[in-house]
User: Fold Polyprenyl synthetase family protein from Agromyces tardus.
Amino acid sequence: MVPVPRLVDLVHDRLEEFLDDRASILRSISPDLDPLAAFSKRFLSGGKRFRALFCYWGWEAVGGRGADALTGRDTGDRFAVVSAASALEIFHAAALVHDDIIDNSDTRRGAPAAHRLFESLHGESGWAGAGDDFGRASAILLGDLLLGWSDELLDEGLATLRDPRAVRAARTEFNRMRTEVTAGQYLDILEERAWLTQPEEQQRTRAERVVIFKSAKYSIEAPLAIGAAIAGGSVAQLDGLRSFGLPLGIAFQLRDDLLGVYGDPEVTGKPAGDDLREGKRTLLVAIARERLAPGQRRLLDELLGDPSLDGAQVRMLQQTIRECGAVDEVERMIATNMDRAMAALEDAPISREARAELGSMARAVTRRAS
Assistant:
């Protein structure tokens, strides 16, 4: 198999090269823009590179290039997939910057969120006005800048492909992903506010819709499809990868929902029970509400979304959700979706090497602790 560190190194180098080039453009405008370049690098320096890896293995699944895929002579295809994988990382960084503003999160991966970094810059510099206003406005612009850069980086890669059909297909997949995740993000914030006016029997379905469009498609299905499109994949091959990617993406997000309530802050880089303070109307919460007695449900509704929840209140909500059986049900849903994904992977018309690696990655993303 192609060594994973090799791909991660190539993505890292491509991002460094691209960001250095864009930093020079910013610098030519004004040295005052240096924080935009510095914070961009900061938010792209870490992470698990899941989306980049799924993009690569979507490409490998269709092309079947084997062990020489990243070192062979077809430099155009290699440059295209590494650029696309890197573009996905920039897109993800942009989404996180905006997500932290929407959720009013103070941290990301154990470090200050972008708007808090800009707020600190304001305070350290002694500028006029409110630091938090400056922080939010600047982070919005940073996220917008990263979104634009993700498009530029993707286009640089696609320009090296010889097959115009592959270029159109990959661009179409990327555009669809961008629309879907933005729609999913809106549905997420809508549910935090509109749940009270929605019929009780619809809340699980509405939460499932958020899971699919905010995360499942964008995290796994879309990167696989983008990589496969670059390789000129057939309809059957892309359908097979989608049939694997969507249920795996659902399992991935359900694990994330559990970590948002029960994750170890030392591992996740987020405060314990952060989703409870943010009022996330996740599938875990929807299932808990179905199972709780009316009095417990009212208490959950009253406390969920209170940013001032203390440790004791968080622990009480964690225990309430667990004891009603909601956690066990979500774990069963993760297992069921994992089974569906693995069955689809077995049937997909893709390379044997990619099938083995994607199976290994599926286990990694659904069993993770952060």
Notes: The radius of gyration is 21 Å. Residues 4-366 form a domain with the Farnesyl Diphosphate Synthase fold (CATH 1.10.600.10). The mean pLDDT is 93. The first helix runs from residue 4 to 29.
